[in-house]
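Late entry, written up from scratch paper. The run itself happened at the end of the previous shift, but nothing got recorded in the book at the time, so transcribing now.
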Amino acid sequence: MGLENLKVLAEGLDHPEGVTVDPTGVLYAGGEAGQIYRVDVRSGGVEQVATTGGFMLGLCADASGLLYCCDVGRKEVVRIDPHTGDVTVYSNGTPDRPMVNPNWPVFDDTGNLYVTDSGSWKQNDGCILRIDAGGKTSLWTAEATGFPNGAALSADGESLFVLESTTPALVRIPIRADGSAGPREVVTNLVGVPDGCAIDTEGRVYVFYYRPDRIDRVSPDGRVEILAEDPEGTLLAAPTNGVWLAPERRRLVVGSLGRWHLTECDFNATGIPLRYPKVEA
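Output as recorded:
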């Protein structure tokens, strides 16, 4: 495969890093000045629906279509109503572990929100926090310390896959029956600066790299396959995160932190669905 399977979907965004789709299939992306954009996947039209004044990284949605966004500028997770633009604080960490670099949020079926807090670059002080459906934040695991970044829940909901950018590696953390974190397991070591990930129905993990401008696919046995690489950094420009477009989930939309567009990819695969739990207001 190569760049022939990629095309620009939408332009005019401010260095978008995080992308997600809501329960109705609407695509959203963030910007480096705290913007939230709604994107029309048919026309490529972009509309700014909210702003936090911070710096938007990862985002996801609940059953009501509210967005939960990692704002590294504000050092907190904010909840945004994309229809009104209202912004409220959802969590800024725990009293003993305030957020330093909230990076990527992942919901499970019951409304627990797993948030990677990357910590400081190359300081090995990252962790993963968990915010329950009532809004209580706790430290979930301190084993993934090497700048834990993008994350995705396995199809069976029993594992959290996390990219550690400075290790660099793709790791798996089991979710025990009581909700606690199991021991960190290395799926495969990587190169460069892996940033975000997505999973297909065959259990393969797609890895998006801040550096180099590349997308890999990791099989369940840890084998790494390069799907696309852009030495010019124009079509793939720091492709930090990706999401499968609903309802077919056959196309991946990837953010471009290094430029101003979203890239659409067709890798002849089908993605697993995101979780959209009910969460207390």
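The two ends are 44 Å apart (CA to CA).
(Scratch paper discarded after transcription.)
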